[in-house]
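Ticket #4471: structure output looks truncated?

Reporter: J.K.
Steps to reproduce: submitted the chain below (229 residues) through the standard prediction queue, then opened the result file.
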Amino acid sequence: MAEKLKELEERLGYSFKEKALLREALTHPSYGFPHNERLEFLGDSVLGVCITHLLFEAFPYAKEGELSKRRAHLVKEETLFEISHKLGLFEFLRLGKGEELDGGRGKPSVLASAFEALIGAIYLDGGLEEALKIIRRLFEDFIKEPSLKNTDYKTQLQELIQAIFKETPVYKVISEKGPDHQKTFEAVVRIKGHIWGKGEGKTKKEAEQKAAKEALTKLNEKGNSHLHT
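Returned output as attached by the reporter:
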């Protein structure tokens, strides 16, 4: 375990003085006590403060409303899952047998919670400045996004279809590939019984969003009249 922890520390660019904090951050409640729920609670707040600081610094002329939207986007489960996955956090989790068999190592909620716990552990071990430094590096590409586009394609599609037909698009996951910690999902979206979009992603939500995006693109290209045929 010590060698594996060292590998994670190298990826983080931070060496823990108190290794027990790191072990606790990686311990799911299903594994036993002490587990990472308290550190997750702490890390959630630390992450919020640090992200707020970085956004305040990066966008000096942005209004409060835009900063709030950007912060919500950066701390949501999907973003934390993506960063955790790039970090390879799933390799280091300590899970109970049941959670392991249930694919816990690849669950977005489990990884996002472990990431927040990790931030909490770094804060306790090294202070706010160390936590801020690591968060700055891990979130650099996300914070640098030039604009906060509306990437909630499912909501866009639903609003459009409800306005035309007074009904909602229907999504279905049609395949799952890969091991539990690196699954790829494929989803389709049906409108009026016909498939209008397909998408692949690391999560079911991501696959459905991509399917909705494809459907919106087709609708923009072909026009809504094609839905009536």
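Triage note (M.O.): checked the attachment and the full token line is present. The two ends are 61 Å apart (CA to CA).
Status: closed, working as intended.
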